[in-house]
Each structure stands twice: as structure tokens, then as C-alpha cells.
Amino acid sequence: MNNQLPGALSIGFKRGGLEIKQFFRQKESVVFTLLFPLILLAIFGSVFSETIAPNVTFSQYFVAGMIASALVNTGFQQIAIFIPIERDLGALKRLRGTPMPASSYFIGKAIVVTVSMVIQVVLLLIAGVAFFGVNLPTAANKWLLFAALLILGSLVSTILGVAFSSVPKNARGASAIVSPVVIILQFFSGVFFIFTDLPQWMQQVAAIFPLKWLTQGMRSVFLPEEFATREIVGNWETGRTFAIIGIWLVVGTFLAIRTFKWDRD
Amino acid sequence: MKPVISVTGLRKSYGALTVVKDLSLTINQGEIFAILGPNGAGKTTTVEILEGFRGADGGSISVLDTDPAIKGSAGLAWRNRIGIVLQSTQDTAELTVREALTHFASYYSNPRSVEDVIALVGLQEKADDRARTLSGGQRRRLDVGLGIIGRPELLFLDEPTTGFDPEARRAFWILIRQLKSEGTTILLTTHYLDEAEALADRVAVMNHGEILEVSTPALLGGRASAQATVSWREGGMQKSEASDTPTEFVKSLSARLGGEVPELSIHRPTLEDIYLSMIGATHE
């Protein structure tokens, strides 16, 4: 008899496939997670079309913010809402009773987040370039920076989503708490408004959280180099951005491991 | 042979509330063992400790040679040997029956064939339907299918037939007997006394965190030797009498009434009668 248990990685990839299947079969999740940002882009991009700096329109500024938000929507928001739903339905407890390694569950989540994040970023880029005058960067180092922001931003957002998933008491509470948190963070972080126009206290609150830094990082990828002088400290603060994301990665991982709950009580 | 489950002096409290006090039991290989008891008796807590979902405050436990109450001991190799059917789960809604079973099979070292399990739980017609379209009874059969896909040596069934119609319940009992005939040890909790009677080799009655008695369904609470109730109609009145010797009593009754006794019935206490008197007896 074969007593060899299947490996955590191979089960993780199977879970990823299953998560993607379940994600796309739920029409609400597809519309909510993938299309809502495009609708926002269409509205804001059409309403605010003025130029905010030489060669920079508000739409371009907004697209950079929306790409940063995509990392929060597909990572933090998706995970922090769906894990409590799975907990309520008994899915997590059932998994806990099987020989599935816990790491496989998180590998599966990482896969579904990556797939929906890539789809959303590509959709936003296509819409941005086609309708809102966004210029794709030409320098290789900008693309490298973009890739690093996507990978680390997605990772930190997902891990914080896992950590936050223990906060709501149940599935209904989850969407009631998580969505406002995300929207307020977007307002404070300079996604919907120009960050330097916000009151100082808002800027300071936003500076604690990763979204402000991801948004600023995306501007450094998609806006002209000269725009850096219009940021708060007059440059893109790339080093500080990665340092703060790094700190949140460590804190988030610690919290996620310490607080994760497989069961309702 | 070593018992599959053996528990001595198990204790569990939540704050000041003692949920399980000094509980001991032994379940042997290939046995169907039922735990009966009212809500709040401590059944679920006990079973969840044995399933490795909860810690214990005291006592010694061995489930397939492991103490699952010790943190970290209910490892994957141990989980590979057990199957758990929880109460009312609604997950895997967007997956078909076959997809869910195929996926869960991939967790185990030596799973059953997916097609065999589909046939075993009687979901052939529904194999390619999404789980959310299943009826309550079909959904429960999928849960059982997911519980047995890993070919468990020990299967936990928590109120498996709640919401079944009588026909589905009979079909389910046949499935459980078949698993037993393959050597699976089964720990069952149920609210249905007829189910315990039909399936269990032994039953334990639990109340207020303690086991009141462990016995076969036929012998529980002195049922085999309990008085029978003889009822009949005489002189336009319904009469009844409790008797240790109902055969003798009916003979004399027949002689007195001159042959056929009108509306005669002899009632032996059912498992439910015994159970209710045991539970009632322990209430203050």
C-alpha cells in the first residue's frame, strides 16, 4: 500500500486551479473584483479630465492609483472577504480535518490572487492607454520597478488580507467592514484625489499604510520623471516605499500566522 | 486487538462551565459506536477533541495510537487515516460532485476511486451537477463521500441524516453497514434513536458531560428485562397493565375473557423510552 502523502506544493497548485474555477463560477465575484475598478476608471476619467501638471492629466494620475488599488482589491479585499465566507460555510474546518497541508491552502489563495490581479492590471492598462492617454514606460528599469511593485504589493496585500480575515465575526460582517476600510484607504492614499491636495493629517495617516506607497510607486512608473518634484518630499522615495512594504510584510506574516482561525469559534 | 479509540478521565471546561467531566470510553476496530444525548450534553465537544479540533483539560486519549488533544500531534499522517463528516456544511457549492471528490481524493495517500464513491453514496445521476443544486439529502451524501474518499480506518459521523426523508435514511444506513463490512470503525452521533438502534453495535448515553451508560441498543437501561405493557379493551374501557411475565398475563387474560382479547397489544420499551427515562432521571 502506498503511504506516501502527496506534496504540499502539488496540492497547492491543485487548490489554485480549484480556487480559480470557483472564482469565475461566482458571477458576483467576477463583476465585483474585476469590473468595478474599470467602471470607476470610466467615471473618474471622464469627469475629471483637466491637466494637473505639464503633460500630466488627472486621468493618468488616477490610472496609476487604480493600478495600485488593484493590488488591494484582488489581494486584501478579496481574501479578507472570502476567507470569513469559507469559515462560515465550514469549508475551512472540513479542510482542517483532511491531510491537506495548511501551506497548500495559502498557495492556492496566492494563485487565485495572482491570476485576478494580472487580469485586472492588464484591463486597467488597456483602458488607460486606449482612452485616458496613459503612456507606457519605455525604460527597462521602469518595467523592472513595475514588476517589483506588483509582486511585493500583491504579496503584502494578500498577507494583510489573511491577517484581517480574523477580524470580522462572520461572512456578513466581512463585506461590511472590509469594503469601507478599502475605500477610506483609497481616499486617504491619493487614489481618488491628488495626494498633495489632501489635508496634512490625512496624508500622515495614509503614510502608515502600504497603499499610499504603492500609489506613489505606480506614479513613479507611469508619470513623467519631472512630476517627482510635485510629490510631498520632491522625489519618488522608492527606497522608503520598499522599506515600508517590507516592514508590513514582516508584521503581516506574523499577525496572519498568529491569528488565523479555521473554525467559527 | 488494540482499541481504535480509548479515552480515560477526559475533562474539558470553558471558563467556569464544565462541558466534559471524567469521561471514559473504548471503541474497538470495526465497531459502529453511537453517542446519544440531548443538546448541550457534551457530545460535540467530546467528538471534536477526538477529531483533533480541540484540546482537552485532562485525561488520556488514544485515537489510532495518537493523542489528538496534544497540540501538533494530530498531524497529516494521522489525518490521512481518519474521515470526518461535520454537521451542515455548505462549501464547495460551485464545484460539481465529481470535481469536489476528485480534488479531495488528491489529499490522501491511498484514496478510493472517485467513481466508486459516487456509486457508493448514490449520486451517479448528480455527478456532474454543482453542489449548490443538490437537495439536502444529496448534499449530505456528498459530505459522506468527501469523508470516505481517503479510505479512512476511522470515520466520524456527526448527525449524518438530519433532514433526510425516510427512504434516504434507509439508503444511508445500507451505505454505513457496507463501510462497516469493509472494516471501517465508525463513531456516530445522532438525535435519531431508531438510527442508533439500526446501526450501532454499542451506544453511549451522555448527559451533563458524563456517560450514563454504555451498552448494546437491546440491553441499554435494562431494556431486555424491563416490564412490558399489556393493553386491551374490557367492558367498554381501555385497560393496561405492566408485567414482568406478559405471556402468562395474556394467557390468564384470554382465559378470563373467553378466548380472543379485544384490541390486545403488548408494548416493550423502545430505545427511545429507555433513553428518555435515562435523560429525565438525571435532571434535577
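qc> The longest helix of chain B spans residues 166-181.
qc> done
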